[in-house]
Each structure stands twice: as C-alpha cells, then as structure tokens.
Design a protein that fits this description.
Radius of gyration: 26 Å
Bound molecules: guanosine-5'-diphosphate-alpha-D-mannose, manganese (II) ion
InterPro entries: DPM1-like, Glyco_trans_2-like, GtrA_DPMS_TM, Nucleotide-diphossugar_trans
Family: Belongs to the glycosyltransferase 2 family.
Protein name: Glycosyltransferase family 2 protein
Number of strands: 7
GO molecular function: dolichyl-phosphate beta-D-mannosyltransferase activity
Keywords: Glycosyltransferase, Membrane, Transferase, Transmembrane, Transmembrane helix
Length: 381
C-alpha cells in the first residue's frame, strides 16, 4: 500500500489523506470529571473525522460528576456511535481505564486521547493514516519531535518535570523506547491486532509507556503534535500520581528475572551498610564476632526485605501475608547465614582474613542462591 500524498499530512485539512477502505477507528477517551469538555470534544471529533474513516468513540469514565449524562446528551448530535463505560471500581487509574476501553474497542485502529482537548482531534485521521502508510502498529503523537511542541504545558515547573521524567524514562529503557521521542504522551494510535491487553499492568497516567515497554510493538512511527491548553477545568494529576509513576517505572524495570536479579544484588550490596554498622557496634561493645554476626545480620535482613518488597516484587506480594513473607525471607537469609558462618570461620581462621572482608566475600557468593530462593519461596504462590 502506498500513500499518494505524504506531504499533505501536515495539513490540518486532512480530507486529502489516502485511507485504504477497511480502516476504521475506535477513539478511546478516559474521563474523570470532564463534563465541561466532552461536548466540545465530540463536536471537534465530528468536524475532524472524514466520512471515509468510520469511527466510534468509547469513553471510559471514572467520574463522580455528571460527565456520563453530558456525554449521552451530546452523543445525540453525533454521526457515529458513542459509548460510555462507567467504572464503579476504577482500577489502575487513567491507564486502567484506557486498557478497558481497548478491550471493548471493535475497530482495527484504536486512538487514545485525553478528554480535555489538549490532544487536537484534528490529528486523529493523520495518526491512522501514518499507521496505514507504514508497517507500524503504533503511531505516537509526539511533542518532542520536529514540528511538535508542548505549548499547553503550563508553567516552567511542569515543563521541567516533564523533561526530567522523559529523560529518566528513556535512559531506563533505551532499547524499548528507541524511536519514541515522547514516551509520556497520552495521544497515540495502535493497531488492535498488536495490542496484548492481558500482558499489560497499567498503573496511572503513562499507558503508552506501559504498552511500549511491556507490549513490545514491533514497529513504531511518530507524528508531531502541539500539546494544547486545556479547554476547561484543571489537570487531574497530583503529587500522588507522581509517586505512582515512579512505582510504575520500578515495576517495568524489574519485569524480567534477569533485571530483578540485578536489582536484588544491588539491594543486597546496600545491605552491607546496616549489617557492617551493627557488626562494628556490637564487636566494639565487646561481643564475640560470631554472635555479633547473627545479630548484625538481622539489620541487613530488615533493610533488604523492605527494599526488595518495594523495588523487586511490588506486584507479587499478594500471594502471602506480610508476616509470612517476612518469616520466609528472614528464614532464607538466616539459612544463608548458617551456611556462611563456617565459610567465614574458614576464611578468618585458615586464610587470616579480617572479619569484615570475610563477611563481605561470603555475602557476595551466596546471593544468587538467596535470589532464587526468594523468588520461588517468598513471592510465588
Ligand atoms: N477514567 C479515568 N480515570 N480518566 C482519568 C483519570 C482516571 O483516574 N485521571 C485522569 N483521567 C482523564 C482526564 O479526565 C483526561 O481526560 C485525561 O485522563 C488526562 O488527564 P489530565 O489530568 O488532563 O492529564 P494531564 O493533562 O495532566 O496529562 C496529560 O498529558 C501528559 C503529558 O504532559 C496525560 O495525557 C498524560 O498521560 C501525559 O503524560
Ligand atoms: Mn490534560
């Protein structure tokens, strides 16, 4: 399939875009209290989407205001079907809503966009056309590619946060995000056939990031866009949402066993600090180094447990009660200590190492065993 008019794609009058016959689009719009925006949104979609591109609009709504009623009212003037999925249990926030909309979508293409008109509806046909023109299964509307801008991102603070978060995210996932200049964008088109909804674990705002990293679409292309000002109302993003984003990053980064083992090892390494500090304090107080080892180890165990819970296995804690996990974790760590003590005694007694060096060496050599044990015995059902 060849496009006849690639240069025209920047033109807001998108009627010239060459779309092959079967293309149709489900526009998924997450909404949380957007009653002052949805009428204008539907109006602009009606204006922007040419008759040759059949579309349906799917709102996934977690509102506590009258947004669903306003949508149903406004839908009466629309030439396309409009659905409102209202969620009583809003799992996963914005991202969870989007995944629900994607599951319910019926068209070959899905465009995800915000309900506050910061994402111009006039770009919808272009996103689909860009996907049809190329083998791409994912088309990202980007603020950070040539021709795009974040004009509507109010305030130097928000711009700085957005830039910093984009940089951090791109450095954490250099391979998966290659070719995506704006992984934080909430505006994109995706082929329904490349979506693996069951593989996704949406957590908050960054649903494109989730899809790009966990969904692994093979081909990606970008279309520049200008992030507009909000039509009405205020952003629903909060500081809490910022924390949720960090948790999301950690969850994505520790998704593979190899990456988890590296993080596990790094955390284990930091466990030296409380362990050695306690050992120093106890031996300075006159305790023999062997009982001191046992006590000091509990400080390292507590420290490691807390970090590993939150950074490695955050989404795998549901299989056991927390006290069960602490118990098993501590048991493994101390079993490890039991194995380690003869080794330390050997290193100290036979090789003349200092207690601290011997302990450090033994800690490092046993960590793989501990990782495998922790995976299998603490965080699996
Ligand atoms: N269903 C549902 N549930 N919708 C939600 C929720 C929720 O918990 N939270 C927000 N939304 C809806 C809003 O009603 C709006 O339609 C859309 O999601 C975006 O929310 P905003 O609060 O307007 O987000 P923003 O403008 O701060 O952030 C947008 O731009 C960022 C780029 O700067 C989003 O698209 C972000 O994903 C994007 O990174
Ligand atoms: Mn917004």
């Amino acid at each position: 399939f060849e496009s006849t008019v690639p240069e025209e794609l920047g033109d807001p009058a998108l009627r010239g875009v060459d779309l092959p016959e079967p293309a149709a689009v489900t526009i998924v719009v997450p909404t949380f209290n957007e009653s002052a925006n949805v009428r204008e949104l539907l109006h602009q979609i009606t204006e922007s989407v040419p008759a040759r591109l059949p579309c349906e609009v799917m709102f996934v709504d977690d509102s506590t205001d009258d947004t669903p009623e306003v949508i149903r009212q406004a839908a009466q003037d629309c030439p396309f079907p409009v659905t409102v999925l209202h969620r009583d249990t809003p799992d996963g926030g914005l991202g969870g809503a989007v995944v629900e909309g994607i599951r319910a979508a019926t068209c070959d293409w899905i465009v995800v966009m915000d309900g506050d008109l910061q994402h111009p509806p006039s770009l919808v046909p272009e996103l689909v056309a860009a996907g049809e023109r190329t083998p791409a299964g994912l088309v990202v509307a980007s603020r950070y590619t040539k021709g795009g801008s974040r004009a509507g991102l109010a305030g130097g603070y928000r711009v700085a946060v957005s830039r910093g978060a984009t940089w951090l995210t791109k450095s954490l996932f250099p391979r998966r995000l290659r070719g995506i200049s704006d992984p934080m964008s909430g505006f994109f088109a995706i082929r329904r056939s490349v979506v693996t909804a069951d593989a996704l674990k949406p957590l908050g705002y960054k649903i494109l990031l989730e899809m790009a990293v966990r969904g692994r679409p093979r081909q990606v292309t970008e279309v520049p866009f200008v992030f507009q000002n909000r039509f009405a109302g205020e952003s629903k993003s909060t500081a809490q949402e910022g924390m949720r984003f960090l948790r999301h990053l950690v969850g994505l980064r520790t998704a593979s066993p190899m990456a988890r083992m590296v993080v596990f090892g790094l955390i284990g390494a930091t466990g030296f600090l409380p362990n050695l500090a306690a050992l120093w304090a106890l031996t300075s107080a006159g305790l023999h180094y062997l009982p001191a080892e046992i006590i000091a180890n509990q400080f390292g165990v507590a420290w490691n447990f807390w970090l590993i819970e939150h950074l490695c296995f955050r989404d795998r804690r549901q299989h056991r009660h927390w006290w069960d996990r602490v118990g098993r974790f501590a048991l493994l760590a101390n079993a490890d200590l039991v194995l380690r003590i003869p080794l330390i005694a050997l290193l100290v007694g036979q090789f003349g190492m200092t207690v601290l060096t011997a302990t450090a060496l033994a800690l490092v050599t046993t960590f793989v065993l501990r990782f495998v044990g922790t995976e299998a015995l603490v965080y699996l059902p």
